[in-house]
Amino acid sequence: MTGEDLTDRMWLELSALAGDRWPAIRRAVAARIAADLLAELDRPPPPASRLHRERQLRADQFCHREVA
Amino acid sequence: MSGQGETLHQKASRLMNEYEALGPRPGGESAYTEAMLAYQQLIAAHPEDARLHLEYGYLQECHGRISIRAAVGCYERAIELDPGWDKPHYQLILALSALVDSQRAIDLYKRRLAASPDQIREYRFLANAYLRNGALEEAGKVIAAGRKLEPDDDMLLAAEAELLDASGRREEALSAWRALKQRDPDDLSPYFMSAFTLEALGRCREAAAEWRYIISWLEAHNDTVHTTWPKEMLEGIEAKLAAADANVSSDNS
Question: If both were cysteines, with which of A19, A32, B95, B190 could B180 make a disulfide (CB 3.0 to 4.6 Å apart)?
Fold first, then answer.
């Protein structure tokens, strides 16, 4: 059984146990999942990739100027 | 502003600059139309002139960008008018990525996810926005988070298949597309995706089988107009196969 199967089964069991309160529980869990995800996504990129991106932007600007 | 006694190239160049500056504003579109004609005449007269090809290409690129920007406005309006419809969101993400403006899509769908964290569609949109931006690691995080909410979501599986393919894990991508084909045989996307990947892997016979399925599905659903391109793709692959077969025959003789 994979972690995914386990999550799948856990959700099914939780939804059956929670009955009418399930939508509220799901919303609360979703809010936590999204908050954790967004916090992780908002972390600054590692310096190497940021440097690469800056170089790319500068190169792009140079290319546009040269063509126009 | 037109110059007295200017050459055709000077005129074309001036019109291109006017179009670049004005875009969709008054005078822009007529400058574009005139510039196109001028460059077509110039290239017909000087087909070996690299600079003319560059400028003609740049003119068309400007036009393409302006058209895509207009498309972005249309999709945004469609979303306002019908907030529950997913299709314009996916088109918006694609259009913004074509403008190399994926960051705008990412920021938008992050805000939307923060506002509606229990809506699985918001994870799908954000995962797509990252995928279109080539941000594979972030796309993977969004897919994993969405899976916590809906472990068996087809659209997240489709996004994961793309992610696997883009990461070079092509066998796993093909396996995900196989699963999607079984879930919904009327969704042609996994067939298209498989065809591209199989051809990239040099598995042309299998790629040809995908294109044949696509063509027969479209014909069976009275959509022959959309078979033109798949038929061209199939012809290309069949030509490759024929060339490979001919090579094998000549090696054996």
Answer: B190
Q: How many residues are listed for chain B in this entry? A: 253
Helix, strand, or coil (residue B172): helix
Domain holding A23, by residue range, is: 3-67
The whole-angstrom separation of Cα B130 and Cα B155 is 14
Residue B101, CA distances (Å) to B24, B50, B130, B205 in order: 19, 29, 11, 38
DSSP B2: P
**What are the chain A neighbours of B147 within 8 Å (beta carbons)?**
4, 7
**Ranges in chain B annotated CATH 1.25.40.10:** 84-184
**What does the CA dihedral B41, B47, B50, B51 come to, rounded to 10 degrees?**
-20
Best mutation site among A7, A8, A13, A37 for testing chain B: the one with the most B CBs within 10 Å?
A37
Model pTM? 0.82
In the prediction, which pLDDT does B58 show? Answer: 95
Looking at domain B84-184, its CATH class is: mainly alpha
